[in-house]
């Protein structure tokens, strides 16, 4: 018997690797001689670096970079097992968790630290960079990232723009002549699971600005500034990024990577499936087990369990889902490749208890699932 275990992390409780280990431990109580293949997964958001490092026996690089407010923060990125691919979560440098609620102001926050992480990854000699968008504190369209990599964003008198989405109103010219030459030899694949354009009612400022501290007046100013930014990009770089689906991700960083890095925007879970070689690993499996902290109606929209399930169904393999909790609308996952789902919490407990007991709850539930399968196979 071959069992492939490919879960996402259980946020605030266990990493994807820890989840996979607990599930295998539970199954081994019932099927000690089975072949187990662990493939820690992610969907391009938080945890993607750790999952890909764990899945490929890579390593983490830590680096102090510029945080969203201009102070130094300890960011990080991963080098996967091939030694040629770096994985970066923009939130590791420019995330909203670095900004206290009282100081959230997307007029002044910057993505400069994300550019610095990219530069540091280039020092490792990589040939490909996977960049995860999401969780940003910024609304600068990736301007800070571009500046960190050598682009010059100039006002009408030839001075470099200050940081933040508010400064983009002053932009008159973009000069990429002195950008890091190493960028030309690296391909960029960007994990982007929203389809918002850069501007307008569904744009970066209108949809995501308020959660970053923007008032209605700020949203209007930021949206106008990003429209102007897109105009200058079109004039100076010959790229029309304003209406591209995903351009509004991470405060417009989606537009920035398209404009300055010639990046390709892809579904996050598809990137991870490719990077972990999941299609090959599930071949010949009797069961595939996946999961995440919560399985509900939103799971079908680019989340890890559905990506794993669709991969397993290429070979008609049964898929089992485990989750910290299930919502009433979770049954929709049955239409997308998951055959059965189980919650792991055994009783009415507090959230803190559930997070703390994640490992033992997973192990016990996995053991019970395996026991059901063993019982159902008797007499066959």
How would you describe what is shown here?
There is one protein chain. This protein is α/β, with parallel strands linked by helices and 380 residues long. It folds into 2 domains: 2-38 and 286-376, Glycerate kinase, domain 1 (Rossmann fold, 3-Layer(aba) Sandwich), CATH 3.40.50.10350; 48-268, Glycerate kinase, domain 2. 35% of the residues lie in helices and 18% in strands. The chain is built from 13 helices and 13 strands. It has helices spanning 16-28, 48-56, 91-94, 112-123, 143-148, 204-208, 216-237, 249-261, 268-276, 278-282, 304-313, 351-356, 358-376, and strands at residues 2-5, 35-38, 59-66, 72-79, 85-89, 128-132, 152-154, 173-175, 187-191, 264-266, 287-295, 319-326, 340-343. It has a 6-stranded mixed β-sheet, sandwiched between helices. Strands 2-1-11-12-13 form a 5-stranded parallel β-sheet. It has a two-stranded antiparallel sheet with strand order 7-8. Helix 11 links the parallel strand 11 (287-295) and strand 12 (319-326).
CATH topology of the largest domain: Glycerate kinase, domain 2
Trace the largest sheet across and list its strands: 3-4-5-6-9-10
Taking the alpha carbons of the first and last residues, their distance comes to 15 Å
CATH architecture of the largest domain: Alpha-Beta Complex
In the CATH hierarchy, what is the superfamily of the largest domain?
Answer: Glycerate kinase, domain 2
Which blocks of ≥5 consecutive residues have pLDDT under 50? Answer: none
Protein name: Glycerate kinase
Family: Belongs to the glycerate kinase type-1 family.
Keywords: Kinase, Transferase
InterPro entries: Glyc_kinase_flavodox-like_fold, Glycerate_kinase, Glycerate_kinase_RE-like, Glycerate_kinase_sf
């Amino acid at each position: 018997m071959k069992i492939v275990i490919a879960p996402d992390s259980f946020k605030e409780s266990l990493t994807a690797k820890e989840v996979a280990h607990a599930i295998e431990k539970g199954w081994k109580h019932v099927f000690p001689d089975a072949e187990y293949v662990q493939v820690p997964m992610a969907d391009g958001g938080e945890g993607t670096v750790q999952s890909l490092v764990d899945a490929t026996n890579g390593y983490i690089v830590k680096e102090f970079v510029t945080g969203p407010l201009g102070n130094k923060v300890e960011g990080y990125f991963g080098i996967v097992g091939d030694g040629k691919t770096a994985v970066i979560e923009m939130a590791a440098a420019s995330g909203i968790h670095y900004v206290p609620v009282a100081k959230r102001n997307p007029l002044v926050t910057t993505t400069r630290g994300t550019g610095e992480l990219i530069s540091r990854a280039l020092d490792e000699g990589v040939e490909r960079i996977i960049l995860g968008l999401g969780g940003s504190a910024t609304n600068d369209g990736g301007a800070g990232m571009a500046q960190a990599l050598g682009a010059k964003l100039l006002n009408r008198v030839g001075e470099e723009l200050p940081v933040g989405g508010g400064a983009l109103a002053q932009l008159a010219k973009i000069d990429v002549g002195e950008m890091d030459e190493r960028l030309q030899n690296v391909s960029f694949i960007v994990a982007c699971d929203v389809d918002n354009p850069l501007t307008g009612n569904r744009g970066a400022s209108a949809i995501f600005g308020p959660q970053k501290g923007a008032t209605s007046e700020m949203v209007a100013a930021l949206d106008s500034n990003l429209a102007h930014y897109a105009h200058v990009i079109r004039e100076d770089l010959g790229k029309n990024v304003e209406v591209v689906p995903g351009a509004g991700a991470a405060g417009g960083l989606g537009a920035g990577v398209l404009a300055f890095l010639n990046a390709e925007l892809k579904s996050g879970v598809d990137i991870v499936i490719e990077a972990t070689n999941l299609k090959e690993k599930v071949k010949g499996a009797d069961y595939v087990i996946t999961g995440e902290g919560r399985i509900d109606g939103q799971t079908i929209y680019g989340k890890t369990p559905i990506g794993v399930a669709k991969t397993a169904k290429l070979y008609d393999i049964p898929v089992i889902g485990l989750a910290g909790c299930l919502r009433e609308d979770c049954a929709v996952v049955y239409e997308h490749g998951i055959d059965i789902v189980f919650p792991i919490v055994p009783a009415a407990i507090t959230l803190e208890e559930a997070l703390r007991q994640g490992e033992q709850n997973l192990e016990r539930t996995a053991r019970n699932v395996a026991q059901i399968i063993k019982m159902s196979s008797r007499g066959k």
